[in-house]
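Dear Dr. V.,

Thank you for agreeing to look over these. As mentioned in my earlier message, I'm a first-year student in the group and I'm still getting used to reading structure tokens, so any feedback on how I've presented them would be very welcome. I ran two proteins. I've put each sequence directly above its structure. The first is here:
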Amino acid sequence: MIPIEGHKDLYRDENSGAIINNNTSEYNSYMKLKKQKQNEKNELDSLRSELNEIKTLLKEFLKWILKK
């Protein structure tokens, strides 16, 4: 691996040319943030689903009330 000038933790793979970050602390922070964002997205999706269910139940209830 070839060190990248001016970046102590970055290297270039000789075969693929890919840039590799060798800083495990930064990687772990990135993965933690990525997991947190995924959890937030899952929670938001769940809340949307529950809200849609509530809306559906309210519509059904209103139909039932208006039939009486």
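The second protein is here, in the same arrangement:
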Amino acid sequence: MKKILAFLFFGVLFFPQIGLSADVVTVDPRCWTRPDCETFRKDFATTKTEGGFFSGKDNELIKKACHVNGDGIDISGRELGFCLPAGISKTAVSFGDRTKFENLGDFIQFLYKYGFQVGSVLAVIVIIVAGIMYIFSGGNTDTVGSAKKKIAGAVIGLVLMALSYTILNVINPYLVNLKMPDVWAINRIGITPALCTQVKGETESASSTPRFATSTAAGDPSTVKMMDKKDMTFICGEKYFVEGNGTQTCGGNECPALGQTCYQQLFDKDKACHTANIAGIVYASSLADKFIQSNTLASLASTFVGDGFEFPWLTASGGNDEEVYAVCKNGYFTSISDDSNDPTSDQYKNEKTLRQEYYITTTENQLNPNVCSGYDGLKGYVLFLNLNEESDVTNEKHLFGINRNTGEAVDLGRPQDDTTKTQVFAKDCVNKYLITPEELKKGLYLPVDISGVCDIETGDEGEILRKRCYSFVGYTSTKDECASQAQNQ
């Protein structure tokens, strides 16, 4: 109760005082770096420094808010997360040698994993005991029948345990999408965006133009000369100070030549420029997806009766599995790709982290807008990926655009559906998510979160999913409504 009152007190006391730099558009104000959180907790009442920083690692809410990867690190190498004025909770009883939990959601998720492990061991023991009973039954029908029932019960229980997440999600998604506490420490200084190109002033006037300086290991922002953004080149892999944000830095992502993309390859430690018009890492942010795909029994059960996608996420079924499509104004789209990698080869696939890398190149001629000359003109471009669908021998193809608020891919539909052309790409609601020719020429890093892709079925169920998944790009809107929406953007 004391911790809850402390949370509420802090929220009421500090929330009205939030003040962000006028020159910088920051990340979610709940995001902190670990050192800043520890300093804040040290200065806040008598709270202990340790235990109050919650990393974005394996936490979907923090990951999305702070724009970090599965390791809790953003694109510029900072560890970001949420910060609480109170410490973590401790249980009197140990669960798998663990007594400390971040919150109730963390406790329940751990119990699910722990319970599955314990249940799996018990199921194996029951099967072994039943097998022994069967062997030494001596033909006794009652003993044989009892042994068969025990084996069947253990197998069914194991399958139900493995599918419990899917079952609860079908009943009500809120049963599994556990929400984190609402009251967090607010970072009044703010966090500089990961990429320097994302830092913007409030207006286009010179007085509000963000200013930067090259950062070095011993650099001090107070001793270096700041330059206007328009005069800066943000070199791939370099870090830069942002005026007004202390020692915080943003990362560069610009390459010296067109047709190159700045990103960190799957097994590299640093970002670098690579020949590609578009490239990215495909990963799963969902704890359930990662648990099922990394657990042999759960993965096997999900393969037969599960829903969604399985690792490796991307397939190589004989070509044309990774492409760039030009989208025409009448909804027609066509491939313009020149070359791509095989994402299933070992150098582009990490079994431990459940990640895959893709990259695609195009030529200058392929980026010619005349490709849509017979279809009312060019509207933009989308990424096409062939995804490995669970419990289905047929892969599921999807088209992706870009969410410019997060820099990540956004699922826009399936190219094999005629409804996708007429109900999405022939309207203007989708325009804001389409990739531009300039982005492809300069090189675009576009990570794909497989947990955010809709697994579209056939028939009436598929139609329900389309309406739920793609209404944001106009699936349930009229053409006039989308045209009006595009004008107001």
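From my reading of the second output: Residues 196-251 form one domain. The chain has four domains: 2-93, 104-175, 196-251, 305-488. Does that match how you would interpret it?

Kind regards,
E.
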